[in-house]
Specification:
554 residues; alpha+beta; Rossmann fold; Jelly Rolls; ten-stranded mixed beta sheet; nine-stranded antiparallel beta sheet; 24 strands; 24% helix; globular
């Protein structure tokens, strides 16, 4: 079932700030950018002794306020931004009948969920009790119709308000997932770069050290426990290939909102920055959400499917009322010799391939920082690839793939990263999903969940699984989003290790693919794949009964 998003009817033609500025430039004046609101009114609001928050307030200046007062939207900025980052969003909402409050967050060293929550409560109290007298304006607000939205750090701030306060009647966080802080540390033993950078200054010892695990759990598990108690309507936005806050963790957040009167998640394409090809759609979803829940608008958002997805590559919109989607089926592909992914399980008694993790002279104690450049320059990347033959029927992949690998490493701890690609007939890869695990068990059978994905894989394309020691998250820069090339999501383990992947009858390694509308993938019969030199090499090795294709590069 696919429910259409209703485009909002309007009696006036609205323009974005960008459009207004463009017109102004043509006319040689900025006076063309006019809006039906007053402000911004700027103030430094004391939220606690010695702490002031810089705010801007805008409010409608046409028409009469509703009997209960104007609805309100708080707008929080991303990291590196300030109250001016989303001035255009604030202006747009104010022009549409909302009071808006956008503000500059606390300094980095003071940012925590509890401080975010305390600031929100204090700012709401100021807006209700002090703002009108201070500004010399009559701007009644409806205390029961406050909402909040924000991106990245602003999404973090918004979620903190949702989980730790009763300030809001509706919320729309963008590009943040609370479960990221604990999921991979607890379940996969891997430390993401964001948590690593924070934890490194607080604990000592080897990664991911029990102290880091304890720190993350003690800091965030009490907050995660609040998800089932959320009752306000929440619309959550994230991108599948967001290298900082992956879509799967946002989906976990969404599914834990068990008590919410209404919940919705939009899983878009792109990386951490909002994809340009679905920005208008995302903003319309948010607008409809606030209009319905804060204004009472009858715009059908309350009957729209709770799961909204944009497919990679095509930007096609699909939706489902629940997760996992009804009719979803899974099919399994098995790693095999010659770099092949096969539909049948291996029958050979012994088969494996190896890759190496070589951090050179880098040590955990000597890490200067947790940036991508350090790891990419010091930790050589070693890659194994496994690939199917071309598809003869289109495949709609929607869901969370998973990988089972039989592995063995020579180090005390070693990391396994997996990346799933759609590969065109010309050999061009498009990243679909990623996952990682770090283990101190050898040999081991690892089950690695991959990030949520959605794509129609065309006829003639193949699927590729990449296994590597370093988690490079390069994504297709032509897919309507800001490229995140060179991004590392997980910190490599800093210890030399020779790692083997087994794929024989006793130790079958595999990837599970979630499908819609079919129960299996249909591939061409045995033929030369159109994969260039690497593909031909894989075919030759396969015919000789040798191991997986191995790529080595820095």
């Amino acid at each position: 079932m696919t429910a259409k998003i209703m485009m909002r009817a309007s009696t006036k033609k609205k323009q974005s700030i960008i459009g207004a500025v463009f017109i102004s430039v043509l006319l040689g004046s900025l006076s063309a950018a006019t809006w039906a609101f007053s402000g911004p009114y700027a103030s430094l609001v004391t939220v606690e002794p010695g702490v002031q928050i810089d705010v801007d307030v805008r409010w409608p200046d046409v028409g009469s306020p509703p009997e209960a007062g104007w609805p309100v939207i708080f707008i929080a900025h991303p990291g590196g931004g300030d109250k001016n980052t989303f001035a255009d969003v604030a202006a747009d909402f104010a022009d549409d009948g909302y009071v808006t409050l956008n503000y500059t967050n606390r300094p980095n060293e003071d940012r925590s969920p509890s401080n975010f929550a305390n600031d929100i409560v204090a700012l709401k109290a100021w807006l209700l009790n002090d703002f009108q007298a201070e500004a010399g304006a009559s701007v009644p607000t409806d205390t029961n119709a406050y909402g909040m939205t924000g991106t990245s750090l602003g999404g973090y701030t918004t979620w903190s308000g949702i989980l730790l306060t009763n300030a809001f009647a509706a919320a729309v966080p963008f590009n943040f997932a609370y479960h990221m802080y604990t999921d991979h540390i607890e379940t996969q033993g891997s430390l993401d770069r964001v948590s690593g950078g924070q934890a490194a200054s607080l604990v000592t010892g080897e990664y991911p050290a029990a102290a880091i695990d304890t720190l993350m759990e003690s800091s965030f598990n009490p907050i995660l426990a609040n998800f089932p108690g959320v009752t306000i309507p929440v619309q959550n936005h994230i991108a599948m290939l967001d290298g900082r806050w992956p879509g799967s963790h946002a989906l976990t957040d969404h599914l834990n909102l068990t008590a919410a009167s209404q919940r919705m998640i939009y899983i878009g394409t792109g990386g951490h920055g909002t994809a340009t090809n679905d920005e208008a759609y995302r903003f319309q979803l948010r607008q409809d959400w606030f209009d319905h829940h804060l204004k009472g608008a009858a715009n059908s958002i309350d009957t729209t499917d709770a799961i909204q997805i944009s497919l990679l590559g095509s930007n096609e919109k699909i939706s489902y009322p629940s997760w996992p989607p009804a009719g979803q089926a899974s099919t399994m592909l098995y790693l095999g010799g010659g770099g092949q992914l096969n539909t049948s399980a291996p029958i050979v008694s012994s088969a494996s391939a190896s890759y190496t993790n070589d951090p050179g002279l880098l040590t955990w104690a000597a890490l200067p920082n947790f940036d991508d450049t350090t790891f990419r320059s010091q930790v050589n990347r070693d890659v194994l690839t496994f690939e199917t033959l071309p598809l003869v029927e289109e495949a709609l992949i929607v869901g969370e793939p998973s990988v089972v690998l039989h592995v063995e490493g020579t180090a005390s701890r070693y990391q396994v990263n997996v990346h799933l690609f759609d590969v065109s007939a010309a050999g061009e890869p498009i990243l679909l999903a990623v996952g990682t695990a770090t283990t101190d068990v050898s040999p081991a059978q690892l089950t690695i969940p991959l990030t949520v994905t959605g794509r129609r894989v065309p006829v003639g394309h193949s699927l590729r699984l990449e296994v590597t020691n370093r988690d490079d998250q390069d994504i297709d820069p032509t897919d309507g989003h800001t490229p995140e090339q060179g991004l590392l999501r997980f910190i490599p383990f800093i210890e030399y290790s020779d790692n083997q992947i087994f794929f024989d009858s006793a130790r079958p390694s595999s990837v599970t693919i979630p499908l819609i509308g079919a129960s299996e993938l249909s591939f061409s019969s045995f033929q030369v794949p159109a994969l260039g030199g690497i593909g031909l090499l894989a075919l030759g090795l396969s015919m000789l009964g040798l191991g997986a294709v191995k790529l080595r590069r820095k």
